[in-house]
Amino acid sequence: MTVSIRPFDPSKDAGLIHPWVTHPKAAFWMMQGATLQDVEREYAAITAHPHHDAFIGLVDGEPAFLMERYDPARLELVGLYEPRPGDVGMHFLVAPTDTPVHGFTRTVITAVMTELFADPATARVVVEPDVGNTAVHALNEAVGFVPEREIRKPEKKALLSFCTRAQFETAVGATA
Known about the structure:
The protein is an alpha+beta fold. The chain contains 5 helices and 7 strands. A hairpin with a 2-residue loop joins strand 2 and strand 3 (about 60-70). The radius of gyration is 15 Å and the shape is globular.
C-alpha cells in the first residue's frame, strides 16, 4: 500500500468526508447529525485556524482517511495538561468500508504518525480519544502511545495519551 497525505480543501472535500463523519462507526467523531454544510463550515474553520490543520490521506491514490493536526497548548487541551515544546495534537478517521482489510487502520495510523514526526519540531504526539473508544486505544498502543490519565473535556471523558518519537520508532521498528 502506498500512502500519501494532502491538505484538506473544504469546498472540495466536505462532500467526500460527510458520509465518513456521519457514519455510525464514526460515533466518537461526534458529527452524527451534521449536514454537508455543517461539515464544510467546520472544516473551513479548521483550515483557516492558525493552530489547526486538516488533511486527506490517500491509500493507493484513493481517499481513505481524514487527519487533523493541532497545537494542544492552544486548542482542545488548554488547561487540561502541562504542554511541552514540540507537542502536537492529532485526530484521525478512517473512511468506513463494507470490506475491511486486515491491518489497514494500523497502516493508516503509522502513516499519520510518520507524517507528524517528519517535522523535526515535533517531539511528542498528544491524543485524547474517548475513554470508551477501546479500538483506538489498542491502535494507539500499537504505535507507541502511553496513556497518562483520564481527563474531562466538555464533550467527553478522554484518555490523555502521549507518544514520543523514540516510543514510535521502537513500536513500529523503524526510523521515523
